[in-house]
């Protein structure tokens, strides 16, 4: 199965225009047009494979450590908030 995802890409810039850094101004503008739903935030791509989830966990461990991440065995548990 092949998924195509359309994403608006902008060059990262710290340029200030009208008192706003353009990186943040563009992000604010982009998300004003996106519905406040899981589908909107994920670009209509809300089903993730386990490999995507585990790869994201590995990436995040570098920044937040292991104790802040929900273990794989607990993610389907009803007692995890």
TrEMBL record:
<keyword id="KW-0808">Transferase</keyword>
<dbReference type="GO" id="GO:0032259">
    <property type="term" value="P:methylation"/>
</dbReference>
<dbReference type="Pfam" id="PF05891">
    <property type="entry name" value="Methyltransf_PK"/>
</dbReference>
<keyword id="KW-0489">Methyltransferase</keyword>
<dbReference type="GO" id="GO:0008276">
    <property type="term" value="F:protein methyltransferase activity"/>
</dbReference>
<keyword id="KW-0949">S-adenosyl-L-methionine</keyword>
<comment type="similarity">
    <text>Belongs to the methyltransferase superfamily. NTM1 family.</text>
</comment>
<dbReference type="InterPro" id="IPR029063">
    <property type="entry name" value="SAM-dependent_MTases_sf"/>
</dbReference>
<dbReference type="InterPro" id="IPR008576">
    <property type="entry name" value="MeTrfase_NTM1"/>
</dbReference>
<protein>
    <submittedName>
        <fullName>Uncharacterized protein</fullName>
    </submittedName>
</protein>
